[in-house]
Amino acid sequence: xxxxxxxxxxxxxxxxxxxxxxxxxxxxxxxxxxxxxxxxxxxxxxxxxxxxxxxxxxxxxxxxxxxxxxxxxxxxxxxxxxxxxxxxxxxxxxxxxxxxxxxxxxxxxx
Amino acid sequence: xxxxxxxxxxxxxxxxxxxxxxxxxxxxxxxxxxxxxxxxxxxxxxxxxxxxxxxxxxxxxxxxxxxxxxxxxxxxxxxxxxxxxxxxxxxxxxxxxxxxxxxxxxxxxxxxxxxxxxxx
Lengths: 110, 120
Fold this sequence. Notes:
The complex is a heterodimer of chains A (110) and B (120). Chain A has strands spanning 9-12, 18-23, 35-40, 47-50, 64-69, 72-77, 86-93, 99-101, 105-109. Chain A has no helices and 9 strands. Chain B is an all-beta fold and 120 residues long. Chain B is built from no helices and 11 strands. In chain B, the strands form 2 sheets. In chain B, strands 2, 4, 5, 6, 9, 10 and 11 form a 7-stranded mixed sheet that branches. In chain B, strands 1-3-8-7 form a 4-stranded antiparallel sheet, with no helix packed on it. Chains A and B meet through strand 3, strand 7 and strand 8 of A and strand 5, strand 9 and strand 10 of B.
């Protein structure tokens, strides 16, 4: 069970859109629509932003959206804001009641 | 509002057993819809799922940690616990407990996390 692969960093200017990829295998991301995304600010616990690939929990801005194609899931943040600067992690079901997280992506707002 | 709170020693000696407890308030740990999990994060690194438990006691572990991990539940106290044996410096991390809504694959409530340092 290897960690899902994410880019180490992604940056964008305020108002722009950015996309974070999360690449797994046919045993995890590719086989299940159980991909979630978490935002983590320094020193804080992760916060659920997206679940079941593209669903947003109540209270999460609609600037956050998710998608999946094959073994790769993606998180898009549109209308980038300063408060979006944080680390982001994807997570996928990996079969046999196990879960795997991504390597994490640091988002910088320029 | 559901709340989770981790508790336990912040310092553990190498080769000993790390023990943490997560206390759930504002909801029942015996709810049939949820599992309860432990996730850790070494300083400056990413998240790692350690394992999950159902209120009935069914457990599921990360294969890479399975030989050293035990997760248990005490429904009378609304708590679940983590034991990690034979710890080394590599087990130094912030340990989080979280609620897992399994059918939708989401860890929707998290504790604040507790730093456990492995050092002599």
